[in-house]
Amino acid sequence: xxxxxxxxxxxxxxxxxxxxxxxxxxxxxxxxxxxxxxxxxxxxxxxxxxxxxxxxxxxxxxxxxxxxxxxxxxxxxxxxxxxxxxxxxxxxxxxxxxxxxxxxxxxxxxxxxxxxxxxxxxxxxxxxxxxxxxxxxxxxxxxxxxxxxxxxxxxxxxxxxxxxxxxxxxxxxxxxxxxxxxxxxxxxxxxxxxxxxxxxxxxxxxxxxx
Length: 210
Prior knowledge:
By secondary structure, the chain is α+β, with helices and mostly antiparallel strands. It has 5 helices and 9 strands. Strands 1, 2, 3, 4, 5, 6 and 9 form a 7-stranded mixed β-sheet that branches. Helix 2 (68-82) packs parallel to helix 5 (179-209). The longest helix is centred in the last third of the chain and has 31 residues, at 179-209. The radius of gyration is 20 Å and the shape is globular. 30% of the residues are buried. Residues 15-28 have low confidence and may be disordered.
């Protein structure tokens, strides 16, 4: 009996655990779509698009100098981990007139890492508000067209997030002022969406080879 118990502990339980977690990946491995087909940023700047990109979307606002820390948190906790993935971009939508502070931010980001996948575009307040409203979130823009929250947009221009977050219920965005939110939640969700696309690519390649 003792030998049987030891064998069960050593061999059967790890196998059961593996099968449990493997099935969990299959069943829960997709990040929910919260808003379908948000407006493309081409309407603001035709040199940039959300289509066919995995985008971390943010709004630093008119007082961007006060939100530099948010950009650097995102750079260290999210961008540096994922920027080498194909079609990944960090996109900040900025009010017109913030060019000088954006140049400062870009310079400092380039001192920290290869910031080539950081994108900044400019628009009038009304255009930013119209675009932001297409996200259909419960997170308001402030009067300076900014928010500390950033959002995950998939290649089909859908807003992804959490429907059953333990703290917020439906979670549309991630607070860039909170290192814990970026570390404990956003990083995991970006990993999920990247894994989702990698899996889809493998399936497509396997079907073509057959």
